[in-house]
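Hi W., the FE2/S2 (inorganic) cluster complex you wanted:
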Amino acid sequence: MPDDKFEPTIVAFFCNWCTYLAADLAGASRMKYAPNVRVVRLMCSGRVDAQFVLDAFARGADGVLIGGCHPGDCHYQEGNYKTLRRVALLKRLLAQMGIEPERFRLEWISASEADRLKTVVNEMVEQVRALGPLRPKRAQEEVEEAVHT
Ligand code: FES
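Structure:
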């Protein structure tokens, strides 16, 4: 039976120069978007280590969102290309752990794209809400195990 009261927690790793500024702009512009996102500001999306994502899931996140500058716009030249490669590997790992692909997302959102940020956040919250909490014992245990090995 679906839990009507379930509010997903999404951990969002946003790059300081683009997506974080878009979130700031959305706030300053009083755009309404789901309050389920816990933002972690990093200087570049390339700083998002695989361990950060696994830790977020292991500690109770129902979804993880990474936001960075568009390809070619990274302030550290190739940081977001590294993110892209890392995310491809992580997606495969998470799938093997039984974590649905909708729970992990990478988006390029520039500083001026507050509206896009709003859309992405709302969309992801709805998708994860429909999936329900990340409670499958096996997946949770596998994440724990991966974190501690
Ligand atoms: S500085 Fe934004 S993705 Fe690298």
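The beta strands are 10-15, 37-42, 63-68, 104-108.

W.
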